[in-house]
Each structure stands twice: as structure tokens, then as C-alpha cells.
């Protein structure tokens, strides 16, 4: 008697390739949602706290390489001169030779020279004027014109970013990082400029020579 063979799948249908594709698309979408959620959570972390001792519009200027000094002597006018502080932070003066100027306030440096000239001149009085005290700030990230901004007057983070063309279409004005070296340690704080753009009165954050500003990417 002939036996009837039974198909191993019975009445079940073979897996449809379209079902597999739908499963793959769902898995890809789920993975993308997980990645997006991770990025959103990382962006929602608590902002970095303000840097200590922020400079203001009247913060005493400390001399740095590149500054141009004018020296005017009380009685020895032939010694009057204008000098640019070299990269090593020094200038060369008559009778004294090389003198370190960088890192000192103008008034403190002036008093130092008066004291050192007491043994060299009958009238050691000398007046120091900062002819040009330019500073450099690096602006990076999502701004329209990233690069180095040179300034010679008190400027805020907001003003510097505007000098760099403003925040780009992909940048986040509420997630701006300001990095500064303080006592040999690199420190960073997070600044929200969106409130300034909307006209809300805020205390401005002033920059100083050597600062780095980074505008983060917006997630939306």
C-alpha cells in the first residue's frame, strides 16, 4: 500500500521575505531612536559651572607678549621710547637691559622701573602707557566665521561670537563652551546665550586673552 508523504511544514506558510525586511527596518528604527535618546540625554547634562574670578570691563589689564608700551621719562626725554613686548615677555631698556614685563599690571611695572632706575638716573620717574593691548580669542564650532578674533577693548562672549558671524544654522546658542587657563589649569564653563538673543537682561561674560569659545551643535 502506498504511503502518503507529509510535508514537514504541514499547513504553515514559508517565511515571507517582506516580513524579514519589515523586521530589519523596525530594528534599524529602534537603534536610531536609542542613539538619538542617548545624544539628547548627554546634551541635557548639567551645564559646567561659571569660571572663578571672571574678568569685567574694569578688570586691571596684565601685560602680555604683543602689547605695545610707551615709556616717557621725567627729565631724560632722550630715553623716551615705544616698545613691543617680545614673545619671551621681555623688553630691553637703557641701563637695565632685559626686563620682564609680561604678567604684570601696568602700574606695578611702572613702580618697578622707578625703583630700578633710582641708582641710574637723578630723577627716576617714568610713565608707562599701554599703547596697544590686543588680545586673541579663538572661536570654533558652529559659527559662521570660525577663527581667531583680535580685540583691544573689553568684549563679551556674545560680542566675540557676533564678530565671528554669529551662531550658524546648526549651532546651539544655549550650549556655548568658554575655556580659559587659570593658574596653569584648563577650565571650561557652559554659557547660555539664547536668553541674551531674546533680550533678557543678563550680566555679560567678558573674555580675556587666550580664551577659546566653542559653539556646540544643535540637536534640533
How does this model look, in words?
The protein has 220 residues and is α+β, with helices and mostly antiparallel strands. Helix content is 22%, strand content 28%. The protein is built from 4 helices and 10 strands. It has a 5-stranded mixed sheet with strand order 7-6-10-8-9. Strands 2-1-5 form a 3-stranded antiparallel sheet, covered by helices on one side. Strand 1 (68-73) and strand 2 form a beta hairpin. The protein is elongated.
Reconstruct the topology from this structure.
Blueprint lengths: L16 H27 L24 E6 L7 E4 L5 E4 L3 E4 L5 H11 L9 E7 L2 E7 L5 E5 L5 H7 L7 E12 L2 E7 L2 H4 L14 E6 L3
Parallel strand pairs: 6-10
Antiparallel strand pairs: 1-2, 1-5, 3-4, 6-7, 8-9, 8-10
Provide tags for this entry:
elongated; 3-stranded antiparallel β-sheet; 28% strand; 4 helices; 220 residues; 10 strands; alpha+beta
Largest sheet properties:
5 strands, mixed
Shape field:
elongated
Mean pLDDT: 83
Structural class: alpha+beta
Order of helices and strands: HEEEEHEEEHEEHE
Helix content percent band: 10-25%
If helices are DSSP runs of H or I spanning 4 or more residues, what is the number of helices?
A: 4
Strand order of the largest sheet: 7-6-10-8-9
Q: Let me know the number of strands.
A: 10
Strand content: 25-35%
Instruction: State the end-to-end distance.
Output: 74 Å
Q: Poorly predicted ranges (pLDDT <50, ≥5 residues)?
A: none
Radius of gyration over C-alpha positions, nearest whole angstrom: 32 Å
Amino acid at each position: 500500500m502506498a504511503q502518503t508523504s507529509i510535508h514537514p511544514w504541514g499547513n504553515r506558510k514559508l517565511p515571507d521575505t517582506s516580513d524579514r525586511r519589515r523586521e530589519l527596518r523596525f530594528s534599524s528604527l529602534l537603534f536610531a531612536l536609542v542613539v538619538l535618546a542617548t545624544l539628547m540625554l548627554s546634551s541635557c547634562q548639567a551645564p559646567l559651572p561659571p569660571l572663578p574670578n571672571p574678568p569685567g570691563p574694569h578688570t586691571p589689564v596684565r601685560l602680555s607678549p604683543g602689547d605695545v608700551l610707551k615709556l616717557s621719562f621725567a627729565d631724560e626725554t632722550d630715553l623716551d621710547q615705544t616698545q613691543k613686548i617680545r614673545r619671551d615677555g621681555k623688553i630691553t631698556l637703557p641701563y637695565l637691559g632685559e626686563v620682564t614685563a609680561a604678567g604684570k599690571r601696568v602700574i606695578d611695572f611702572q613702580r618697578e622701573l622707578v625703583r630700578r632706575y633710582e641708582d641710574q638716573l637723578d630723577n627716576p620717574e617714568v610713565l608707562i602707557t599701554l599703547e596697544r593691548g590686543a588680545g586673541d580669542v579663538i572661536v570654533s564650532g558652529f559659527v559662521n566665521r570660525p577663527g581667531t578674533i583680535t580685540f583691544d577693548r573689553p568684549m563679551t562672549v556674545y560680542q566675540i561670537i557676533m564678530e565671528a558671524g554669529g551662531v550658524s544654522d546648526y549651532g546651539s546658542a544655549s550650549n556655548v563652551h568658554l575655556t580659559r587657563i587659570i593658574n596653569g589649569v584648563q577650565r571650561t564653563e557652559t554659557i547660555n546665550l539664547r536668553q541674551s538673543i531674546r533680550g533678557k537682561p543678563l550680566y555679560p561674560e567678558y573674555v580675556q586673552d587666550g580664551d577659546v569659545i566653542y559653539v556646540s551643535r544643535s540637536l534640533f
